[in-house]
Amino acid sequence: MLSLLWKGIQLETSMGSAEFTSMVATLVSMSQGVTLLLAKSLLIFFDYERPYYNEYSLGFSGVLFAMKVVANAQSDEYTSVHGLMVPTRYAAWAELILIQMFVPGVSFLGHLGGILAGLLYLRLKASFSGPSPLTQLMRGFRHALNWPLRLVKSLLRTRPRITGRGTTGGRNARDTLQRWRCQACTFDNSGRLNICEMCGTGHADDGPSSPVPTSDIHDLSLEELRRRRIQRFG
Q1: Which end of the chain has less Cβ packing within 10 Å, N or C?
Q2: How far apart, in whole angstroms, are the C-alpha atoms of residue 18 and residue 101?
């Protein structure tokens, strides 16, 4: 399991979860298929009394050997296999021999089938220009599983409010349409007013607004207009 964790982190980080899942599923099938062919070949060419494919075996180590082949295929470095320095790309072969020497009860054909499955996977992957069909299927399956979560997020997502007087705050559409914005100070005035409440500029629908003198609103100095703008916008 520690070996699976170490190889899984390297491979899934480099290729993504969907492709990693499809690779593992492919290697499981291929390693078992190659092991079965090897066992059948032993029965045909060496005439074993008991067919090897009738023996019981359990474990994930064949797939781990295949993952090691995939992870180390493009490496030009050297690695230590139980104290023996070998090229990293051939580490799986060295480990196959050493494990069989120190632990003779393990499945030699299972490990050998995993290595051959890894080489076959690399050959098939090189022949495809794009993602494999199984990878596309895994991505579609993941997309389908994430659909309810994306739906909930879209329902809970809050849209940004448009700040400014007269445009938000629960006003109805009729009141929003009736309001007009002063072109001099950008203050939103009520539709019932023809003169800007802030700076005294008149409202004109057909052209730029211009100051309109009235008896109720006196001309504002620039300092007073600046003070009102600061008071409004903070």
Answers
A1: C
A2: 37
